[in-house]
Write a structure and sequence with these properties.
37% helix; 8 strands; alpha/beta
Length: 176
């Protein structure tokens, strides 16, 4: 597989990336593009990126954990999480830190082993604790300032894949 044109992680962040064994994702603005489309029959539609999905499959094949924590509830998110075999899904929570803390305890992980990706204020408490905090370009300024780095690809358009690729490369697992 080819290398990204510009590395996401500075040399200082590669050490952080090597420790990561769990990925915690927001949905709207990160895993999906942030648009909410209502169909005529009342259902909510979301757009997901197939490359993000492929990256998550490879992440799981490498033996790592994933969690999706969203402030909104959506059947589409439930469906996508099931398709991707996400290890943990929590929806409808604005206070995400307690969920994050329970996950770390359940999975017996330290903050250093977690990468959190987010775009808005509800992710900030988790990002401040995570060993690797990553924003997407469409994130609010407070999130960008609190993060270790920002992806080149926007949320819902391959940002998750970009992070997974960079972490697996840092761990020396990408070519496998």
């Amino acid at each position: 597989m080819s290398q990204p044109t510009q590395p996401l992680f500075s040399p200082e962040l590669v050490d952080r990336a090597r420790q990561v064994t769990a990925l915690v994702l927001d949905v709207d603005g990160v895993l999906a593009d942030g648009s909410i489309v209502y169909a005529e029959y009342g259902d909510e539609l979301k757009r997901f990126d197939v490359q993000d999905g492929a990256g998550l499959v490879w992440w799981h094949m490498s033996g790592f954990k994933t969690a999706v924590i969203s402030g909104r509830k959506s059947k589409m998110v439930e469906r996508r999480a099931k398709e991707l075999r996400i290890d943990h899904l929590t929806q409808g929570v604005l206070q995400k830190l307690p969920v994050y803390e329970r996950l770390l305890k359940k999975w017996k992980l330290s903050d250093a082993q977690v990468c959190v990706m987010g775009d808005d204020l509800p992710e900030l408490p988790m990002m401040r604790r995570a060993g690797l905090a990553v924003a997407v370009p469409n994130a609010v300024e407070e999130v960008k300032r609190a993060c270790h780095c920002t992806t080149s690809r926007p949320g819902g358009y391959g940002a998750v894949r970009e992070v997974i690729t960079a972490i697996l490369q840092a761990k020396g697992l990408w070519d496998e």
